[in-house]
């Protein structure tokens, strides 16, 4: 029965990969007539759905073939989906803009709210949570033995470090995309100090290069990668917290002036709530990596 459920999980991911590919094609050939959002959003959307489709498809095939790297990939994927689902569920529950007291509009609003809560609850919370629990079971894990897990066990590289490294490398990939397809005209770095234009591209490029260095270095248990990760993420977490506490609605509109007169806008309360929740995972990762200091200073993997 376990093998059948693993195969079904792989088929499910392949089906979602096909759907993601359809979204990419739709975004490419049928762009939204809404010109409110910057052009970078459309290009980023196409690349995002294409990369997501490749990731889902390869992970689905890996699960069917019972490759251990695909199990780790599924953990990363499920973590992202679970965090996204929680945010979507909260947004649908408390922050969807309520229309005027027109009966038809109120009925449509209630229906859309129910659909959003149901979709986020099933596909972004329940299923990812099931994957995290099911594929963590020893009996299921034993089906995937012989890949990364054995190498990690022999080298002293724990699963948690692999997970953090994979998250870091994924972040580096998306940061690289921001260099070529900026989604916002300007980004706050610290308080009112913002970057735009070529300086914003350089900013993203530096973070992308450092991200690749950290991700690869963590996989190889390199001391320099550990030090860089701890210093960089300590600073960025404090800066993000400062920006979150000092952000104003005027600054949000300054970052995204196209949204000022549209329905795409985000309230200050919603921005702070999403920003606060998005800091949870980086802080957990930072504390975990700090707790594994001995792995990097007492052992290592030779290049």
Topology:
Elements: H1 2-29, H2 39-64, H3 68-95, H4 103-134, H5 138-141, H6 148-155, H7 159-180, E1 186-190, E2 193-196, H8 197-219, H9 223-246, H10 249-255, H11 268-278, H12 280-291, H13 293-298
Antiparallel strand pairs: 1-2
Helix pairs in contact: 1-2, 2-3, 3-4, 3-7, 3-11, 7-8, 8-9, 9-11, 9-12
Write up what this structure looks like:
This protein is 76% helix and 3% strand. With 303 residues, the protein is mainly α. It has a domain at 152-303. A hairpin with a 2-residue loop joins strand 1 and strand 2 (193-196). Helix 2 (39-64) packs across helix 3 (68-95), helix 7 packs antiparallel against helix 8 (197-219) and helix 8 crosses helix 9 (223-246). The model is unreliable at 147-154 and 261-265 (pLDDT under 50).
Give the C-alpha Rg.
21 Å
Can you tell me the residue ranges where pLDDT is under 50 for at least 5 consecutive residues?
A: 147-154, 261-265
Provide the structure class.
mainly alpha
Quaternary structure: single chain
Discrete helix count: 13
The major beta sheet can be summarized as: 2 strands, antiparallel
Give the N-to-C terminal Cα separation. Answer: 41 Å
Number of strands: 2
Q: Which shape, going by the Cα principal axes?
A: globular
Mean pLDDT equals: 78
Give the % helix: over 70%
The topology string of helices and strands comes to HHHHHHHEEHHHHHH
Q: Strand percentage, roughly?
A: under 5%
Widest β-sheet, arrangement of strands: 1-2
